[in-house]
Specification:
Helix content: 10-25%
Number of helices: 5
Largest sheet: 6 strands, mixed
Order of helices and strands: EHEEHHEHEHE
Distance between the termini: 38 Å
């Protein structure tokens, strides 16, 4: 006979929001994750050419927006104006790319946020500085988990934003 697991129910984590029901890393996806009961939301950030942390997974714009080119070579004014919803469904036409500050304003009041810093650089102080500045300006590190596959980005991060978790 199988025993039932005792304890609290599992935590729901929205990967890129609710990417199965709305275009990933958009306000629509984050709202859908919250509506589904997500207690955590993971999102991805990359720097634009002018240093703004944009909420995008890919290094290029083609897959999830109507834009073309490399995010790191494109200014925020162009990235923020792109349609990030039509690729998913016509019903999401006009959904815009968010910057990290807008995403945190939407999510932080009700959920914990995993911010995955995306870069092709082993050492990217500009990305780290931008994420730390936005996090500090939006309430500090409480409720944030800062992650990256580029582990060198995480060196010293805990000292700069002590209330955040680093993974």
């Amino acid at each position: 006979m199988r025993s039932r697991r005792e304890g609290p129910p599992p935590e729901i984590i929205g990967h890129r929001g609710a990417a199965a029901v709305a275009p990933e890393n958009t306000a629509a996806s984050f709202r859908a994750a919250l509506a589904a009961g997500a207690r955590w939301v993971e999102l991805d950030v990359r720097l634009t050419s002018d240093g703004r942390p944009a909420v995008l997974h890919d290094a290029t714009l083609e897959r999830t927006t109507n834009g073309r080119g490399v995010v790191r070579e494109t200014p925020w004014s162009a990235v923020g104006a792109l349609d990030a919803g039509s690729w998913f469904s016509p019903s999401f036409s006009g959904e815009r790319v968010l910057d990290l500050a807008a995403a945190l304003r939407l999510l932080r009041p009700t959920t914990r946020v995993v911010v995955e810093m995306k870069t092709e650089r082993e050492h990217d102080p500009a990305l780290v500085d931008a994420v730390v500045a936005v996090a500090a300006a939006s309430g500090g590190g409480d409720g944030l988990v800062l992650t990256s596959f580029e582990w060198r980005l995480l060196d010293g991060l805990a000292a700069r934003l002590p209330a955040a978790e680093v993974a």
